[in-house]
Design brief:
By secondary structure, the chain is α/β, with parallel strands linked by helices. The chain folds into two domains: 116 residues, Rossmann fold, CATH 3.40.50.1860; 107 residues, Rossmann fold, CATH 3.40.50.1860. The protein is built from nine helices and seven strands. Strands 5-4-6-7 form a four-stranded parallel β-sheet. The longest helix has 19 residues. The relative contact order is 0.17.
Length: 230
């Protein structure tokens, strides 16, 4: 049974589950209801505010408690579709006995090898943590970051959380054009952005590496490896 610790943010959990279902269809041809995996989904509200610094102690405590609740349901492994939550990945691993997929690691695996300039679209805490940047330098990839991009990302996340999806979509379209002029790859490292990111302007050549897609594929592959070890 797959464990999904969601709720970060609340609107991103449903699309992630849909993504896992779609990956089941793509990866192993799931067709009938019985073909799909057992999933236990816990939407865990966290003390995250886009306009305030994170209280890391409270955030870690909330996420760990959520993981522990999932563990008691008998899940075989856990996926957390939230990049920011991975700031506490080591503490999470120490707190429960079931495996946890690492969203950051799964995303890094899928960065195209021909990438030369990359942008990271994420919450400010994820950017500041350096979870991705070290990998960029090791692979001779230039990391490009602009404060104006971060401001736009923050505004999109706020719009999604408040239900102003059309406003978020307009901001996303503007951001895509700016990215297209500066980088060849953008990593979508915040699941709230998935609500608007399917709208890519025509003639935009940027490659989007979506961390949510990467994790969904990893979830299905992990499920298959446990269901059929051969």
């Amino acid at each position: 049974m797959i464990g999904i610790l969601g709720g970060m943010g609340p609107k991103s959990t449903g699309p992630f589950i849909d993504n896992v279902v779609e990956q089941c269809q793509k990866i192993y041809g799931a067709t009938y209801d019985i073909d799909f995996p057992h999933m236990m989904i816990y939407s865990c509200p966290t003390p995250f505010y886009i306009d305030r610094p994170i209280n890391h102690e409270e955030m870690a405590k909330t996420i760990i408690n959520g993981a522990k609740k999932l563990e008691t349901t008998g899940v075989d492994f856990i996926a957390i579709p939230c990049n920011t939550a991975h700031l506490y990945f080591s503490k999470l691993k120490e707190s429960i006995s079931v495996p946890i997929l690492n969203m950051i690691d799964e995303t890094i695996k899928e960065i195209p090898i021909n990438t030369r300039k990359v942008a990271l679209l994420a919450t400010a805490p994820t950017i500041q943590s350096g979870l991705y940047e070290q990998t960029f330098s090791l692979n001779d990839v230039e990391y490009v970051h602009k404060n104006s991009w971060q401001t736009c990302v923050n505004q999109i996340i706020s719009a999604v959380k408040s239900g102003e999806i059309s406003d978020g979509a307009q901001l996303w379209s503007k951001l895509c054009w700016e990215l297209n002029e500066a980088v060849d790859t953008a990593i979508l490292a915040c699941t709230d952005l998935n609500i608007v990111s399917h709208q890519i302007p025509n003639d935009n050549n940027i490659t989007i590496v979506d961390s949510s897609d990467c994790l969904a594929r990893a979830v299905v592959n992990k499920y298959l490896s446990l269901s059929n070890p051969s």
